[in-house]
Design goal:
Elements (H helix, E strand, L loop, with lengths): L1 E2 L2 E2 H29 L20 H12 L16 H13 L3 H7 L2
Antiparallel strand pairs: 1-2
C-alpha cells in the first residue's frame, strides 16, 4: 500500500534505520557521560586472583580448588560466589589469550 508517495516497505526500512541510529546515539551518550563522571569501571578478569592483569596456572588451580570446596574463597578475592565450570573455562581462556585490556590496565596501576 502506498501513502503520500511512500511504500510500506520504504517506511519500515527508514524506521529501522532511525531506531538503529537512536540506539547507537543513546549508548554513546551513556558511555560518554559515565566516562566524564568517573571513568568506565574495570572489567573483572575471572581467574586473576592477585589482580595483576593476567591469569596463571596456579590461579586456575586455586579457582578449581575453591569450586571443589578444598580451598577458601578468601584466597581469591575476585571470586564472589562459588565458581562453576563456565567460570573455570573463562579463567583458562584468560590464561591462554589474556585478560580484557581494561582489567590489565587496572592491574598495572
Amino acid at each position: 500500500m502506498e501513502t503520500f508517495g511512500h511504500s510500506e516497505c520504504g517506511r519500515s526500512a527508514r524506521y529501522r534505520s532511525w531506531r538503529t541510529f537512536a540506539a547507537a546515539f543513546l549508548i554513546l551518550s551513556i558511555v560518554t557521560a559515565h566516562d566524564a563522571i568517573g571513568g568506565i569501571p574495570p572489567v573483572l578478569c575471572p581467574g586473576d586472583c592477585n589482580d595483576d592483569g593476567q591469569v596463571t596456572v596456579d590461579e586456575i588451580i586455586l579457582v578449581t580448588m575453591i569450586a571443589l570446596g578444598a580451598a577458601s574463597p578468601d584466597l581469591c578475592p575476585i571470586v564472589t560466589e562459588l565458581p562453576n565450570v563456565d567460570y573455570i573455562v573463562t579463567s583458562v581462556n584468560n590464561a591462554l589469550v589474556g585478560c580484557p585490556p581494561i582489567a590489565a590496565q587496572e592491574g598495572n596501576q
